[in-house]
Amino acid sequence: MHPDAPLPFAETLSVLQTLVPPKLLSPRVGIICGSGLSGLGGSLKEVVLISYDRLPGFVQSTVPGHKSFLAFGLIGSVPVVAMLGRFHPYEGHKLSSVVYPVRVMAKMGVKNIIITNAAGALNPNLAVGTIVVVHDHIALPNLTGMNPLLGPQIDSSYSRFLPISDAYSRSLRRLVFQAAHQLSLDREALAEGTYAWVSGPTYETAAEGRFLRAAGADVVGMSTVPEVLAAREEGMNVMVLSLVTNMVVIPEGYKSVREEVEAELAGKVTEAVVDEVVSHEEVLTLGREKGDLMKALVEKVVEFIGNGNGGAV
Ligand SMILES: O=P(O)(O)O[C@@H]1C[C@H](O)[C@@H](CO)O1
Ligand SMILES: Nc1nc2[nH]cnc2c(=O)[nH]1
């Protein structure tokens, strides 16, 4: 059993069986929608929306830009299940709750999961609006004892020591670039990169931004990695798409306040320094602006998976 167990899988699955038509009950692909990206739910055919409060084991999403619905439906002819709103540890949710929906998806037979998020860019070559196909991560919380796989194993069929150097499926990543080609996207629309997971809810200081960049991260966010770990533990193929919603504030150099004051005292005219900050509103606005692009990519990848392309099952 896992920490804080028992996990109510049987109850959750039994509720789903009563609410979801048989045709949609064995989804091929799981999707998690990041901040401002839940619009995907609107394009599912034959959609059935289930409020999280009807599902044992599910908590509520409390963050603006996240709904609290599990959506079942079809993309083309492929049955999918999508979380319209995810859970973050900074909301006060336990890690076991954050990843519970991923485990439920696995119990329903999902083998491929597409996880989206909104993220800040650390790499100055990334532009706001770019979608980063994540190929690796840096998770300081994992390295310092905040890992959803900590604790007794769910059962002996799970690996105790899970390797995650291959967490981000190469075949699924290939599908995204093939999808971008079919959608005639500009080359700049997509990039590849490493996602840094931080707990949030504070955004980064400039020094933290420099630190994460120096460590090799391209984007930073407050979600996703716990879900990736659970999905890998459940044996799923994982794909992660990060929408760059803002540049992390990393000024070129520190403008000394002492020098500014000394210059003023010497009668020199100084340039006013305005400290920049990030806001969640900015994140959501970008999510709305680029939501259709993210949706188009995800739909195309699902279509490819449905056709058995790319080596993903
Ligand atoms: O759920 P995601 O990772 O898309 O949300 C990001 C990270 C924080 O939850 C929030 C900060 O603006 O957006
Ligand atoms: N940590 C973090 N998460 C984000 N989510 C969206 N933008 C950001 C950001 O700049 N930093």
From TrEMBL:
**Molecular function terms, GO-annotated:** purine-nucleoside phosphorylase activity
Family annotation (CDD domains): PNP-EcPNPII_like
| Enzyme Commission number | 2.4.2.1
- Positions bound to phosphate: 35, 66, 86-88, 118, 223
The broad enzyme category this protein falls into is: transferase
Which controlled-vocabulary keywords does the entry list?
Glycosyltransferase, Transferase
Q: What family is this protein classified in?
A: Belongs to the PNP/MTAP phosphorylase family.
Q: What is this protein called?
A: Purine nucleoside phosphorylase
- Species name for this entry? Tetrapyrgos nigripes
